[in-house]
Structures are given as C-alpha cells and as structure tokens.
Amino acid sequence: MIEGFDNRSEQVFLSILDMVMKSIPAATDATIHLLGEEGERLLPQASSLYGTKVIEKLKMRVGKGIAGLAVQNAEVIYVPDVIEDPRFLQYESPPLFRSLMVVPLMVDGRAMGSISMTSERMNAFTLDHERLLNSLAKQAGIAIENAQLSGKAGEVEEAFTDQMEGIERILTGLQSRTQATFVLLADTSGQLISQAGPGGNLDSTIFSALAAGDVAATGEMAKQVGEKESFRFLLHEGDENNVYISYVGESFLLAVIVNKGVNIGLVRLFMRMAVRELAPPAEELEALQAQELIGVGFGGALAEEMEEAFGGV
Amino acid sequence: MMFINWKLREINLKIVYYGPAFSGKTTTLEYIHAKTNPELRGDLVKLKTRKERTVYFDFMQLELGRIKGLKPKFKLYTVPGQAIYGASRKLVLRGVDGVVYVVDSQWERLMANLETMRDLEENLLGLGYDPESFPFVLQFNKRDLPNIAPIELLRTQLGRDGVPCFASVATQGIGVLDTLKAAINLVMTSARQRATPDGRADRE
Q1: Which of A89, A246, B104, B189 is 20 to 30 A distant from A194 in Cα terms?
Q2: A205 and B42 in contact by Cβ < 8 A?
Q3: pLDDT of residue A297
Q4: With an 8 Å Cβ cutoff, are A203 and B72 in contact?
Q5: φ and ψ at B200, to 5 degrees?
Q6: Does ipTM top 0.90?
Q7: Residues A44-60 pLDDT 10s
C-alpha cells in the first residue's frame, strides 16, 4: 500500500472493485493501481481476486505495458486478445487472461492510477463495458482522492492539535503569571492562532489584524531610523491598560494586555520566557500548514454555501 | 497564507482589495459588511484619517457555514490607494491569498489604475508571489458614471486579459457580491490545486 493510505482507503478500493465486478459480469478479475509518490510506477492497491494483499508481480512502470500506457496517455485501452498485442508485457505463458481493458483514474484532469479488468475469454468486452467502466472510474478517482486526503488530514490534525494544546498551556500560564486580562498569539499576516484570558469585549480577530499591522508599521519605522532589525518589543501605555507585543520567531507575535498597575519588568520577563517556549510549537504549526488537504467537491459545496450566505441580495 | 486550524477545523484565507485612490475599495467593503448576515461577520474596522481617507487598511472577517467539516473564514482587507502610502500597501499584502483589484473606470483615472497595478505587481513579486499566476479578480467600479472607458479596453491596458472581471457600482452594491464570490472561488481553487500531489501540472 502507498504510505498515507489507511483502512478507509482499503474499504474504498474494495467497494469500487465490487461495483465493477457486479456491473460487468463479463470480467473475471479487476485491479486498481495507483501512481507511486515518484510518479514513475503503478502500484497495485487491490484486486477482486486477492483483496488488498500486495501482489508484487502486478507492479507496472508508467509508459510500459497496457496499464502504463493508459495512465501515461490518460486514455482507455482495450485489448481484445493480449496474445496478439505487442504492447502487452507477457509474464506467464500462456497468459492468465485473454481480454484486458484499462481505464485511467482521473482527478482534476490528472491520471492518478488505473482500473484494469480482465477476462479469460477473447473479445470479452464491448463499447458499453468501456462506457460503464469509465463512469465508475470517474467516481472512483474522486472517492480515492478524498479517502487519501482524509487519511493524511487525520495525521496532520493530530499533530496540529498536539502543538496547539502546547501553545494554549503556555498562553494560559503567561496570562496567569502576568495577571493579564488577555493574551494572544497571531501570525505576522494578522491571523489569530490562539488566545487566553477573558478579554472583556475585545474582538481577538480584529485585535490580531491590528497587532500585525502595528508590528509591520513599526518594523518599517525601525528601517527608517537605521535599525538593522525590526523592533522586537512594543509597548503601548494607556490610562487603564498597557499592551505589550513581542515577536515570536520571525512569523508570529505575542500580545499581552495587562492592567496599568502590573509591573512592566515582570511582564517583560515572563513574556521573554514565553516567547522562547512558544517558538518551537509555533514553527511546527507553520510547517503543518504546508500540507494543504482539501477534498475534491469542496469547491461545489462552497459555491452552495455562498449562495446561502449572500442569497436574496 | 491560508491557515487551517485543524483543532477548530477552520480554513482562514486573506483577500485584499487593491486599487488606486478613490476607486471604491472602502465603499465595496462597507457594502459587503452591510449586506451579510451579522452572525457571519465581525465588525468593520477602518484605519482612516480625519478626512475619512484610508491611512492603513480596512478590515472585516466573514465566515461561511461548515463545508465538508471545515469552516471557511475570510479576512477581507483594503489598502490605502494614495501614492504616499506605498509602504502600507506592501505590509497589508503579507500573507495574502487572493486580490480583488478595484478599477476606477473613469477615463481620467486610467494612468492611476496602471500605476497602482504596477505597484501591486512589484509588491507581490517582493513577497515572493508570481503576479501572473496569483489568484486575481478585477472589479470595474463606477460603471454608472458617464465618462467611463470600455471594460475590455481597461482590462487590456491593465495587461489582465485572462482574469475574471465584473462591472460594479459599489455605492449601490451592484456587482460587489458577485466579485467577492468569484474571488473566494478562485482562492479556494488555487488552494486546492496546491493540495494536489502535482499542483503545477494541475494548473497547466
């Protein structure tokens, strides 16, 4: 199995093959291949005869053999008699089957693998079989991609949640030590990451956007006055509250809002400690963002949701 | 940069309304704010001068219902259009996922449109984005005024022939939400393309 696939994917493969065999009784076997990570090999995922047990000899190279050509050219190939077709790579003599039809699994215009069906008889398949297999392959491509993304998303979600809980603990600790009314971590584009404390009527989304704007603007000021780097720490003093903002690494910022009476030195000390602790999990969260996992069909559902949100306007 | 909060199952995206001074960016955001369900959006924050001119940015958040288990949240920003605020425009673009370029359709603003487009392209390049493939929608505003240039001509002059475009009258809300929907779709499509194992082949 390709790395990243889970039991859910296996179930999807078996359901697809079951549908193929039930819809096309002329087939004696059907197999699903998927492109390997490197994009050069087709790896068997499941067959109607052998289930999801890996069958080494069914591995193919893209561009070689019937399945390899079907995937390379993103086209259906029907071979009425494999003995007569020089493109067929014959490993057994006589071959285990005579007719072969391979349909590429397409997602977003890209071949991600193939479904092959075989028969012991020559000339076993018709144009109707081709249409039917093609239609099943279209649905199968989407189902497989979604199962694959869902499996990967589960792993990312778990890693993300671990890091986020670490960040929440650090923010809660900081809030308690500094008696802050509010503490938040955002990225430098203004995206709120996490927060702690009651905050009153404060809108943390808006506050994050403003804090990022604040840090960005003062960073430019630093340049203007000849500083080599941005100001790492900002302090805004008010009548009732003070706002402290500090960079966390290069991509995040930590903001702390405290009542005027709280000692500045103490707040700075605890913030400095929190910044050191926050940097690793914050960077890990950033790294997890590189794995963008949104399933097929999201766009259509999004359009419907927008109609609802803006409907009747 | 799209930020997915897997713990809360939220997708956060940043869309920036860009364009020359007085092209209608703030008016566009005000209309969106006024016409969307208050439960789905936050306050509209405007950082402006005493004379009601945007000095840094306007900001609002808009969210949609859950889609396949994920809740999309869109951060909508405007930039200040005046030439002197070039540095501010660049800062607001940090982490942007898509741009709506609000064109002032009047003939006499043609040069201002071209200059601001060049400014946008330079800023995107400076942030490491490719302006040619960046998710982009054109909103041709002020289509109710008498002295307007044809949309096709403006689009060609801006060098954006293949980009989705919409006619609008932001003061009346005409075309504003259609433009936003197109921008959201484009940003999400672009995010999905990045999600495929071979995003580059997908885009070709």
Answers
A1: B189
A2: yes
A3: 58
A4: no
A5: -65, -45
A6: no
A7: 888 888 887 766 667 88
